[in-house]
Write a structure and sequence with these properties.
This protein is α+β, with helices and mostly antiparallel strands. The protein is built from 10 helices and 13 strands. Strands 1, 2, 3, 4, 5, 6, 7, 8, 9, 10, 11, 12 and 13 form a 13-stranded antiparallel sheet that branches.
Length: about 325
Amino acid sequence: MNTKPAIYLLLLFAFFALSCQSTPKTTFTMPDENSSIPLDAGALGYIFIDVKNSRPILEYINFSGMNDKQFQPILDVTQFAAAALYLPLSPRRYQLAAWGNYPSSRAKMALGASKDWEKIRSPISGDWYWYSEQQKLSIAINQKQAFVLAVRGNSPADALLNISTDNISTDPFSAAPGVKAPDGFGAFSKGSVLACWFDNPGPLINQKLQTMGIPFEFPAQRFLISLFPVDEKQQKEQHYEAHLRIQVASEAHARALATVFNFARGFISPQGNADDTAVLASILFAKAPVLNGKNLNITTAPLSGKELSLLFRIFSL
C-alpha cells in the first residue's frame, strides 16, 4: 500500500503537536439519531473514536499504512474523530472529520508553500481545502477541526481493479445534512470509547471468515460495535468489553440466525493458539447471542487492544 499520504499527514500533524500549547476542553459524545455527522452517505461503515480513551486499541490498528510512530503525532493532537470507510471497489478510500486544537494558520502556510498541494475552494462549504493530485488526498483545517478525504488511483492495486477517479469530487467537506446515526445507536454506544456501524456488511464479513476457515454466513443488514473499558487491576494493559449487535430483516430471521449461530459455536472452539482465526472466533462465538427483536446482541469477554484490532481487520482498516 502506498504510504506517502500517511507521511504527508504525519508531517502535518507532527507540526500540530509541536505547536499546540493546550488540549481541547470540549467533551465529545458518541452521536445519536438526532446528531448531524459531517460525513457523506454511501460508505460501508462509520466509526467514532474517543481518541484519548481508546489509545490501546488505535495503536494496533493500521490506518492507511501508517505505522505506530507515524500515527502517534496524530493521536496526540486529536480528541475525537469520525470516519467513513468505503468498499475496496469504491473510488473513495475514506473520509475523516477530526476535532482537536490545531494551529490552522501555520498549517495552511505549510500546505500553501508546497508545490504538491493545490488550493481549491469547496463548492459545498465555500471554504478552502488543499488537494494533492499525486497523493489523491484532500485536507481542510481550521482551529478546531480537520477534514480529510482520500480517493483511489495512486496504487498498483487500484490499477489492477481498474478504479477510475476521473469524475469523483475531491472535496473533503460533506454535503448537508451529513449522515444520521441509525435508530438506537446513541443508546447502544453511550459511554463507549469507540463505536461504529456497518451497512450491509454480510458479503465482506463472509468473505473474510471463509478466508480464515470459519464456515459461517452473516445475513446481517447492519453490524454495530461498541467498546467499553474494563477495570481489571490484575491486567498489565487496558482491556475492553465489546458489545456487538447484528441486525437482520425480521424477528423470524433473528431466531433462525441465533439457531445457526449456536450450532456453529458447537464446532468452533474459541480456545487454542492466539492466531487471527482463534481470536476472531473468541470474539464472535465465545458467548451465545441474546435475542432482542430483530437484533442479536453479543457481549465478549475482556479483550486487549491487540485482540480487538483483529475484529476491525475484517473491514480492512
